[in-house]
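Researcher: Structure prediction, please.
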Amino acid sequence: MALIQKGISVILALCFVMMTASAVYAQTDAETKNAVIMKGFYDEVVNQGKMDMFDSFFADNFVEHEMLPPDLPRNKQGVKQLFTMLRQAFPDLKFTVNDMVSHGDKVWTYITISGTQNGPFMDMPASGKKISIQGFDIVRFVNGKAVEHWGLTDDMTMMTQLGAIPPPEEKKK
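Model: Predicted structure follows.
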């Protein structure tokens, strides 16, 4: 009888381990898929300018938490308008992924944003000047679509590189 109880205990323990491993695998699989979707957005929409693919990455109820220009709504349409404007101003716009972490339903990305201003941008005529700035994106996904975004971009450095604001003065020693 003790041998049977021991056997049942081992079987139950194995079942628990297999169920736990299965749940962890499912979560890891979803995290991997979200990271692949994020990389796809950077590659297809941002780097290659395929704006016709934009809607396939975003849910209709998408919410933008990062500051946008004042005339743009903080939703899917506003972000689409922003990227259309950026691609027109910086035809060679590129987001380079420096680091990416996927955890749960969120993907965190540290990026370098680069491009050449060959079109008007925020009331500035085309300058031919290059930018290279850093940024962070956090995107929450549901069913393979972005539903929320938080981000920070080094706008001060970009405006300095474009000549819109003077560079900060160096402290004299």
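Model: The longest strand covers residues 130-142.
Researcher: Thanks, that helps.
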